[in-house]
Structure formats: C-alpha cells, structure tokens
Design a protein that fits this description.
Elements lengths: L1 H10 L2 H21 L14 H21 L3 H5 L1 H18 L1 E3 L2 E7 L2 E3 L1 H17 L9 H20 L3 H6 L4 H6 L5 H18 L2 H20 L3 H23 L10 H22 L3 H27 L2 H10 L11 H12 L11 H4 L11 H33 L4 H25 L17 H19 L3
Antiparallel strand pairs: 1-2, 2-3
Helix pairs in contact: 2-3, 2-18, 3-20, 5-6, 5-7, 6-7, 6-19, 6-20, 10-14, 11-12, 11-14, 12-13, 13-14, 16-18, 18-19, 19-20
Length: 475
C-alpha cells in the first residue's frame, strides 16, 4: 500500500497542484483584503469570512489527500451510483432545503451548511464519463444524444426549482465534453444561434429578426443550391413579391386586413409559402431546402416565444440584468449598480494597483458581494492590470494542463472526465470575470478556488483531485 501511495505521489501532476495552491492562497488573501476590518485584524479570526475560509481551505486539502488514497477505478465502476446520489441530494434539497439569499438550495445539518447544487458538477462529470466510456455508447446516434441530454437537463431542472439559475446554466458547459467526444457540430451551433436570436429579439422588433432569418436562409440556400439554383431563384422572386404585398398596401394606404399587426402579416404570408416549399423540397428531394425550412420555422417559434419567456419565466432582477447587459436600460443605481462599481474598482487599479489592503472601492463597500461573486474586482483594484493578468494566466495554464492530462489518458473515462473538469472551470472563470467587467450577464457564480465559500472550494477541489488521481493511476 505504501509503495502504491509513493507511486501516486511520484506520478501526480505537481504543476496542477502548484497552480491550485497558488490560486487558493490568492483567494484567501483577497477575501481578507475585501472584508478587512482593523477591529478584527487577525487573519486567523474565525468570526470573519477570511478566518472561515481558512477552515474551508484546510478541509479542502484534507479532502484532496483522501481522494488521492481512494482507488481510481472506483469512479468508473460506480459512476451510475455516484450520479444517482447527486440527483438524490438535489431532491432532498427541494424538500428540506433552507433559503439563503433568495435561493432554497442549502442543506443545514447543525453547524454544517453546504450547497448540493454546487457539487452536482462532480456527479454529472463522473456520470457522463461513465456512460460515454461504455463500448456500446455512440454519441452520434439519437439514443446517445437523448441519454446525455437527460443526464444534463434533469439536474439542471432540479436546480432551477431551487431558484439557482446560475448554477443550472453551468451545466451547459458540458456541451464542450460532448463535442470533444463526437457530438455533431450542428447541435452546439444551433444552440449558439438560438441564444443570438433570443438576445436580438429582446433588442429589436421581432419582425426585423424574422426578416433577418429569412434573408440568411435564402443566402445559405443560394450557396447550397448547385444545379437546383433556377428553382431557388424562382422561389426567391415569388417570396420577395409575396412579402412586398403588405408593404405596398401600407404605402398606398389600402386598409385591406388593416386590423392585422405586422408580425401577423408576416405569419399569414409565410405559412402557405412554407407549405409550398415543403412540397417542392419533398417532391424534388432537396435535402438542404428541408433543413432550411425546418430551421426557419424553428426560428419563428423561438422569436415569438421570447416575449413570453422574458416576461413570464425570468424573474424581474434577471430581466433587469439582461437589459443592462444589452444596453437597453443603463440603471447604474439599480440592476447595473454592481457591475458599474466593479468596473470603477478595476479601472482605478491602473497598471500595478493600489496595493494590498489599500483598495478604496473595496474598503468602503461600494461593490456588493465583493468576497464572493465580485472577488475579481478586488484583485484588479489592489493589484492592477498586471495582477489581474497574472490570475487569468494561472487559469489559462491550469486549463491547458488539464486538457493535456485528459488527452494522455489511456482509457476514455479519464479523458471524458478531464474535459468535464476543464469545461466547468472554464465556464465559471469566463462568466465570473466577464460579469465583473460587464461583458457577460450577472448570474451569481463564484470564481474557482478564489471566491469565498466552502461548497465552491470543496467542489472544485474534488473535481481537480479526482482527475489527478485518475491520471496518476493511468495504466
């Protein structure tokens, strides 16, 4: 047993361990600086957040040692059980969860408090690696896509019921894992296009977005037409004339169907035309035309559902954050306050920063959640551009190293799990830093290894050291 443990210590990737320790210590010092109070100046004071974070850090390191002692094959053998345990925890939270900060995602057992929604990243990573590494699994089949989609969407739905939208969105990062393992490229591309259409439908009149979709569809059709180009040109001319009817009627002040809204005109005109085009596509077996029509109809459904989703499903503070991000409502005293103050703090740091414990924006509590979601602005203010770049560089090096570890695995389980770890860390880093500088929406997710909180630190420690154990046992 001792020989095995020594072998693991020799094979462990110490570059990753070093970066992990450095990030954790940067986080601890940043938390101390963010909530520093001269009356409680001791960094080991457990009545303050920095003192509690030290306890979480020591607990995380103990957890890391335990993980390194557990045989790596356990995760592959019991992947289904581990994933099921994660779902069970989420269900328990729905029944016995305690509400904190508007979210009912916390379990409290005496002095112990933790957030299973944070830890679901570990369970989903192991579960996906388990099912996708089986010999009979094929991601390019509809059955395979349905299996992995269910494994991601079920916990995401449970987390949404706990009012943790940000942590539910994190699970979308696993698309990177699926794409690496052979997921058809059109699926993630479709998702990206859907997000763009959703945002455009908030900014613009939905009718303009529909015209944009129609124009792009025909442009792609012309590119793919080949020998069937005359057919498509004829259809395009008919379509153009067909859509010009309501404009001409309005131009000459003809009140025919004047009671219809503009978008209703569009649908009235588009419906029979789509039917005709479908008949042409099926009779002449024009595959690309079928695909374009399906995409066009899907875009119409999406665009006209945006209003309902935005006004009835999203909460008021989520609506306000999206409007602020898109520049629709620049409310620096309301929904945009956090980001506005964060950008001021980061900008005031200049090249080299104001120095440790000298951040005025931080000291006078201008930035809410400065030790959790907005911890990066404290780093930017006190250590400046150079300090911020150093932290980003550490994350980039860590991600590159994790991908290298994943690619050198002899078994697919380790590779898939490694990409799951990289995807989760990348999503958190990109969104968290992005929201502090105003380029991504504020969805309330922590910065890995740096933000205050035991659930987050322990989750990322578990993710990382399970991978290191699998890599050290790679045979």
């Amino acid at each position: 047993m001792r020989r095995r443990n020594r072998s693991v210590l020799k094979k462990i990737d110490w570059w990753v361990v070093t970066i992990y320790i450095v990030l954790v210590l940067i986080g601890w010092l940043s938390i101390f600086s963010a909530v520093y109070d001269p009356e409680h100046g001791q960094i080991f004071d457990t009545t303050q957040r920095y003192g509690m974070q030290l306890i979480w850090i020591l607990g995380a390191w103990f957890l890391a040692v335990v993980i390194l002692l557990i045989p790596a094959r356990i995760y592959a053998l019991f992947s289904n059980l581990i994933y099921s345990f994660g779902l069970l925890l989420l269900i328990i939270v729905l029944v016995f969860g305690v509400e904190r900060g508007g979210s009912s995602s916390w379990l409290v057992m005496g002095p112990i408090q933790f957030q299973p929604a944070e830890m679901i990243k570990v369970f989903v990573s192991v579960g996906l690696a388990g099912i996708m590494s089986r010999p009979h699994f094929h991601i390019k089949t509809w059955r395979g896509i349905f299996q992995v989609a269910a494994m991601i969407l079920i916990p995401a739905a449970l987390i949404l019921l706990e009012k943790e939208t940000g942590l539910a969105l994190v699970l979308s990062a696993f698309v990177i894992v699926l794409y690496r393992e052979g997921l058809p490229g059109w699926i993630p591309v479709t998702g990206i296009i859907a997000i763009i259409l959703f945002l455009l439908s908030i900014i613009w009149d939905p009718l303009y977005v529909l015209w944009l979709c129609a124009g792009i569809s025909f442009f792609i059709g012309f590119l793919l037409a080949g020998k069937k180009l005359p057919v498509l040109i004829t259809v395009a001319l008919l379509t153009g004339a067909y859509f010009l009817i309501p404009m001409l009627l309005e131009l000459f002040s003809i009140d025919l169907f004047a009671h219809l809204e503009r978008y209703q005109w569009f649908l009235l005109v588009a419906a029979p035309l789509v039917v005709v085009l479908l008949i042409v596509a099926f009779r002449r077996r024009i595959v690309y035309l079928k695909t374009l029509l399906l995409a066009f109809v899907s875009s119409i459904i999406l665009i006209f559902s945006v209003g309902y989703v935005f006004n009835n499903i999203l909460k008021p503070h989520q609506q306000a954050r999206i409007e602020t991000l898109l520049g629709i409502d620049d409310d620096i005293y309301g929904s945009g306050y956090n980001v506005h103050q964060s950008k001021i703090a980061i900008g005031s740091g200049g090249l080299t920063g104001k120095g440790f414990l000298k951040g005025t924006q931080t000291k006078f509590n201008f930035v809410p959640e400065q030790s959790t979601d907005f911890i990066f602005c404290s780093i930017g203010e006190e250590w400046g551009f150079l300090g911020a770049i150093l932290v980003i560089a550490l994350y980039m090096f860590l991600l590159i190293r994790i991908i290298q570890i994943s690619e050198r695995q002899r078994h697919s389980f380790g590779r898939i799990y490694g990409y799951g770890v990289a995807s989760c860390i990348f999503f958190h880093v990109f969104i968290n830093i992005g929201m502090t500088i105003g380029i991504t929406p504020v969805i309330g997710i922590p910065l890995p290894f740096i933000s205050y909180g035991g659930s987050s630190l322990w989750t990322f420690t578990l993710l990382l050291f399970i991978l290191l154990k699998i890599d050290a046992s790679n045979e």
